[in-house]
């Protein structure tokens, strides 16, 4: 888990806590400028267009979720499969457009978010000691996540309860 989450953590950041969780719904939104779309991602193009991306999944799937001092990291445990919708028009203001300066794979989009970009986080008790969490971002992205009480069979994942509480406290 640390190795997988570590791929998406920004330089200078350290993973403070990471656990296995279940995502029930994901909607990732991004607006990218000066780029062209390929089969697997976006490439920079000075004469390229603005591309609005919606990356969605509406089924339950396993994720690793981690927190650093400044970032929330969410990575699929298994091979990703999302619904991708693209648009070349945006009613958004220019401040939300991320200029593409190097190749970006679609699988890497929506894995790392600045904590300051979270606009709301609803936390509710779930079934059998689980915790349900709805995270909404300023750019329109959102996640419905369930943190299980234990991180696996037997005694569970080491430090799971401690790390889960740390993530929930930081999101609150």
Give a verbal description of the structure.
This protein is mainly β. It has helices at 2-6, 160-171, and strands at residues 17-37, 41-44, 49-57, 61-67, 71-76, 83-87, 98-99, 104-105, 112-114, 118-125, 131-137, 142-147. Strands 1, 2, 3, 4, 5, 6, 7, 8, 9, 10, 11 and 12 form a twelve-stranded mixed β-sheet that branches. The radius of gyration is 17 Å and the shape is elongated. The model has no long low-confidence stretch (mean pLDDT 89).
Which features would summarize this protein structure in a list?
172 residues; mainly beta; twelve-stranded mixed β-sheet; 2 helices
N-C termini distance? 23 Å
Strand content: over 45%
Give the uncertain stretches in residue-range form.
none
Q: What would you call the shape?
A: elongated
Structural class: mainly beta
Q: Rg to the nearest angstrom?
A: 17 Å
- Number of beta-strand segments: 12
Question: What is the helix/strand order?
Answer: HEEEEEEEEEEEEH
Q: What characterizes the major β-sheet?
A: 12 strands, mixed
Mean pLDDT: 89
Q: Counting H and I runs of at least 4 residues, what is the number of helices? A: 2
Proportion of residues in helical segments: under 10%
What does this entry show, briefly?
It contains 2 helices and 12 strands.
Secondary structure: elements and pairs:
Blueprint lengths: L1 H5 L10 E21 L3 E4 L4 E9 L3 E7 L3 E6 L6 E5 L10 E2 L4 E2 L6 E3 L3 E8 L5 E7 L4 E6 L12 H12 L1
Parallel strand pairs: 1-7
Antiparallel strand pairs: 1-2, 1-3, 1-4, 1-12, 2-8, 3-6, 4-5, 5-9, 10-11, 11-12
């Amino acid at each position: 888990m640390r190795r997988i989450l570590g791929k998406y953590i920004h330089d200078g950041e350290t993973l403070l806590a990471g656990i296995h969780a279940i995502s029930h719904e994901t909607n990732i939104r991004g607006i990218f400028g000066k780029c062209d779309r390929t089969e697997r991602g976006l490439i920079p193009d000075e004469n390229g267009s603005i591309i609005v991306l919606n990356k969605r999944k509406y089924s339950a799937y396993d994720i690793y979720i981690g927190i650093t001092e400044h970032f929330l990291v969410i990575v699929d445990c298994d091979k990703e499969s999302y619904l991708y919708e693209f648009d070349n028009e945006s009613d958004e203001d220019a401040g939300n457009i991320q200029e593409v300066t190097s190749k970006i794979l679609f699988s890497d989009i929506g894995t790392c978010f600045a904590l300051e970009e979270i606009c709301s986080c609803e936390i509710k008790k779930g079934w059998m000691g689980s915790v349900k969490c709805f995270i909404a971002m300023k750019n329109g992205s959102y996640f419905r996540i369930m943190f299980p009480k234990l991180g696996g069979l037997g005694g569970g994942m080491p430090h799971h309860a401690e790390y889960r509480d740390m993530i929930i406290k930081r999101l609150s």
